[in-house]
Amino acid sequence: MGDGDDGAAMELRGVTMTYQGAEGDYTAVREVDLAVAPGRFVSVVGPTGCGKSTVLNAVAGLREPSAGQVLIGGEPLQGLNRRAGYMFQQDALLPWKTVVQNVAFGLELSGVDKAERLERAREWVHRVGLAGFENAYPHQLSGGMRKRTAVAQTWIGDPDILLMDEPFGALDVQTRQVMENELLSLWTDSGKTVLFVTHDLEEAVSLSDEVVLLSAGPGSRIVGRYPVELPRPRDLLDIRTTPRFTELYGAIWADLRNEVMRTYERASHGTAGAGAVQDAG
Ligand SMILES: Nc1ncnc2c1ncn2[C@@H]1O[C@H](COP(=O)(O)OP(=O)(O)OP(=O)(O)O)[C@@H](O)[C@H]1O
Ligand SMILES: [Mg+2]
Questions:
Q1: Which residues have CB under 6 Å of ligand 1?
Q2: In the chain, how many domains are there?
Q3: What DSSP letter does each residue of 153-192 carry, written as one string?
């Protein structure tokens, strides 16, 4: 095979993503190289608008690179990535379907017969803690319950790769920590490879084996890779207060902060408002 990392579950090789717009082209990410070994949990952080979702969309096969290549299990990706499950920031529940029907929907698309898909969906609804809500409609659910439904929707297809784009961003802090803990227990021993996008560095460090930092755009590149050697299994409710966590967080935040400042300076160039930058910590 090629000269890249052949053992990788997913690999971006010199990936450049350029958007064509009315006012000219905009290159969001430029020549990104990233190989993720099977079973690893990798988070991507970076300032707003730097190209995190763009990278995820490339791996999902939702948008083809302008240059470079995405490889899945060593094979060049063509079209949609069928080995990946994608969890968007905004869940994609169908309002006219019940919880069980929403969870079963992906299996319906792939032609699994009705009895089997409903049985598997019910199992997943139980696993994510929604027993009793099988026949509820999305508008009857809390934000956390909608996320649980979305998790079941993503996992039921048993994808090798999970692509998650700020999946818990809209939740309150407590619900979010509960969901993060549950995600980790699902993932542990699953062998699944995760690419997790977040702007929340605490979330990135506490969940991941490695944190990848994208620079401020345009033309974002990977400017840091930080192995997270915290022991597993992790209890996310306690891990954030350990000295090792604080140390790692501080080191990555120093670099992330630089990129956030650069983004902010570009955005506010020529305008007032210094000091309004939001601290992620
Ligand atoms: N379809 C598109 N057409 C034109 N430009 C786009 C398109 N999608 C994204 N962009 C631009 O590409 C850049 C990267 O966008 P992207 O959504 O990947 O950023 P992000 O890191 O996910 O941001 P956030 O943290 O706010 O979600 C942004 O400047 C954005 O405006
Ligand atoms: Mg995004």
A1: 19, 21, 26, 28, 46, 48-54, 199, 217
A2: 1
A3: HHHTT--SEEEEESTTTTS-HHHHHHHHHHHHHHHTTT--
